[in-house]
Description:
The chain is of the alpha/beta class. Helices cover 42% and strands 19% of the residues. It folds into two domains: 2-180 and 354-369, Glycogen Phosphorylase B (Rossmann fold, 3-Layer(aba) Sandwich); 198-352, Glycogen Phosphorylase B (Rossmann fold, 3-Layer(aba) Sandwich), CATH 3.40.50.
Amino acid sequence: xxxxxxxxxxxxxxxxxxxxxxxxxxxxxxxxxxxxxxxxxxxxxxxxxxxxxxxxxxxxxxxxxxxxxxxxxxxxxxxxxxxxxxxxxxxxxxxxxxxxxxxxxxxxxxxxxxxxxxxxxxxxxxxxxxxxxxxxxxxxxxxxxxxxxxxxxxxxxxxxxxxxxxxxxxxxxxxxxxxxxxxxxxxxxxxxxxxxxxxxxxxxxxxxxxxxxxxxxxxxxxxxxxxxxxxxxxxxxxxxxxxxxxxxxxxxxxxxxxxxxxxxxxxxxxxxxxxxxxxxxxxxxxxxxxxxxxxxxxxxxxxxxxxxxxxxxxxxxxxxxxxxxxxxxxxxxxxxxxxxxxxxxxxxxxxxxxxxxxxxxxxxxxxxxx
Length: 370
């Protein structure tokens, strides 16, 4: 079984490609802009033994004209043919998000290669103010799904919303396959974590939809109770300055750590040294950040949105039905008081979300489509 995996966006794409590679032969293709990757436009660049980047022209306005959709599809056919000559025929192609499915569908029409979409998009739920409006998402998703063979939703909640919108064609094969995590990086701590201070961590883009402000206010509530607590916010984004100002206003700035963007290894180290992971988001699908925390054996406090309730089923956790500071503080205290065997908890999470587990599920789905 040979799969062509479109690795855009990079984080999603490579995690999924690594998982797929445990059960199939995978060739990775990232379509990039030449002004980002520095390669000459129109070139296919080998960046690994089975990993390639194709560089598009830098003028994005040019690609908005209808004629250039045709050019883009011809480009993908040419790239596919080059890779097929090198590795052999592809049994299927996989792309992330419905907005990228239209271009990849040319492989189905012109090369008889089945195409699946791995769907993560919050736009289908209508709950994410940062993404396209629901009527536009419905129109684009319906058009995209009509052109492909299968849809792998990352959560049952997302599948439910897509079916409620009426965008899933009757003939399409559908499965729910969770996001995969590298459990060689995200694993339980090698030794006991110090009892004090109480370390709370959140890994997410600093944006209003993630509601880190509520965590800073909860930190203030905890410290007013006499609890020696510290909050680490991993990530960056447009809300950072306002969050730093709020921490100063409440007098908890010296107990709030803003790390900025961090590589996976450093994120894993921070998770291993923490006591509770918290994510009070307005909307989520199946967040990688929570899965990574689970794979380090960390208890989780999160809002019951998207696929989060199913994700946390059986895991030490608290669902935040309210995000006022006192409720979050109560949840953190509750989780911190209960002893957790982090190695056992992490092993259970790895059995669900490790590369091998997810790769096997994806391989079964791809076979059902081909």
